[in-house]
Amino acid sequence: MSRILGLDTVSLRGRTVLPGFIDAHVHLDSLGAFLNTLNLRGVGSIGELKTRLGNYAAKSLSRWILGRGWDQETLEEKRYPTRWDLDEVVSERPVVLTRVCGHAAVVNTRVLEMTGLIGGSVPGVLKNEAGAPTGVLVGKALETVRSRIEEQTTFQERKKLLMYALAYSASQGVTTVGFVSCSSASLQALQELEAGLKRLPVRVRVYLNPGEAGEMGLQALKHGSPFLQVNGVKLFADGSLGARSALLSKPYSDSPGNSGCANMGEASLRAVVKEACEKGLQAAVHAIGDKAVENTLKAFETVAECSRRLRHRVEHASVLRSDLVEMMRRLGVAVVVQPHFIMTDWWVVNRVGVERAGLVYPFKTLAENVKLSLSTDAPVEPLNPWETVYAATTRGGRDDIPLYQHTAGECLTLEEALHLYTEGSAYGLLEEGELGSLKEGRLADLVVVDKDPFNVSLEEVKETRVLATFVDGCRVFTAGGSGLEGLREQCLKRLSAASF
Ligand SMILES: [Zn+2]
């Protein structure tokens, strides 16, 4: 490192530098928890799930046993795990294992008892033919369990998990995150972390749960810092394709008569979007099925001027008719997509049928018609941006994903994917003038990587490693042994003091 005219300079010895990635849709609190829970991604059978659960429970010191990532489609038994499966392994401590999509979970009998869900009438408790709860929970029942976990998470634990997620983001080359479905407790924890550290390792843009956008949220909206700002509220118009709860205009092809369900009716969606406008909050609405996207856009249309100005966001937009793309273009709203869904939802052609397959994840069409941001929905998908770039550019064509055959024309180029993941996402967060590009006058958020992605194959792009991450000119991550010199040791010291 040397100093020229009072500026720190560092030699990167010919390494590639890119603008830092901006992941516009992340569940930062769940990510922190996920990084510290049982990872069930890729589990191949209920037997394997039980073994992993048993091993984890034996080591885990926390009372609640939390896990995430199973998918009944990849289980040998081709069925949902049940509470009886879990009871065989852990019966005394509460166990909650969330499905890969986050919209369903299986719990053990202990959880059903302690939450009163076993005999109550809360909707979303799935039952077998004999009428007994199976332990699989969706919707309201799942929310009940989540709030119980939330109540029992101490504030110190929350701060620790959020800090863990922020440090992990920096390690992945993600320099700004859109934190969706943020609770007031998590916002307060972030504020305390920032007050203690003077700055957060990466920039956080917050989308509060609508019920929590009260006085505290509005104060935070007015008094944001470069590292922590409240942007808006996050709403849910429907569920997921995985759990067949995304709202489609025609029934699921593999579940006749079922078109999914609206999480919020049209009237309440309109009311909450209008209220967000009045408070100056950007509305980010989860809408996966085409009917949910339609309801969302109609709600945005009722406040058209504000939707354009505040750039209300459609999150996911997984099944998208061409009339809806046109409506998005006309309204000037932002659209936030997660290319890695293509890899996880490998069964999607069966769900929606061959005729509708061409409407699924149409990223190229979207990029040509609207302002598009990329994201991962982490921990739903891996936070590693290179996996998302690989998914966006190949669409599973090299991984036997059936959707590719129906939508090969929707592959993004590498250049488009990188642009949308940086400047595109900055647009979704209303900050394209400051973030997302390496230009004079922009903020110095950048990432140093081990290869030039334009000079290698897409398989190699997927394996790109981050060597160092800088936020606001400050080094917030260095890969071990990279030999790069640091900048501004002072801010580094403050950040490392926060590690645990
Ligand atoms: Zn999400």
Concise overview:
With about 500 residues, the chain is an alpha/beta fold. About 40% of the residues lie in helices and about 20% in strands. The protein has an eight-stranded parallel β-sheet with strand order 4-11-12-13-14-15-16-17. A six-stranded mixed β-sheet has the order 5-6-7-8-10-9, with helices on both faces.
Description:
With 500 residues, this protein is of the alpha/beta class. Helix content is 39%, strand content 20%. The protein has an eight-stranded parallel beta sheet. It has a six-stranded mixed beta sheet with strand order 5-6-7-8-10-9, sandwiched between helices. Strand 1 (2-4) and strand 2 form a beta hairpin. The chain is globular and about 65 Å long. Residues 1-5 and 481-500 have low confidence and may be disordered. Bound molecules: zinc ion. Zinc ion binds next to loops. Zinc ion binds at residues 25, 27, 180, 377.
Structural topology:
Elements: E1 2-4, E2 7-9, E3 16-19, E4 21-26, H1 28-34, E5 38-39, H2 46-59, E6 65-70, H3 83-89, E7 95-99, E8 104-107, H4 109-114, E9 125-127, E10 133-138, H5 139-152, H6 155-171, E11 174-182, H7 184-197, E12 203-208, H8 215-222, E13 228-236, H9 266-279, E14 282-287, H10 290-301, H11 304-310, E15 313-316, H12 322-331, E16 334-337, H13 341-344, H14 348-352, H15 354-357, H16 363-369, E17 371-374, H17 385-394, H18 403-407, H19 414-428, E18 446-449, H20 458-462, E19 466-471, E20 474-478, H21 489-496
Parallel strand pairs: 4-11, 5-6, 6-7, 11-12, 12-13, 13-14, 14-15, 15-16, 16-17
Antiparallel strand pairs: 1-2, 3-18, 7-8, 8-10, 9-10, 18-19, 19-20
Zinc ion binds at residues 25, 27, 180, 377.
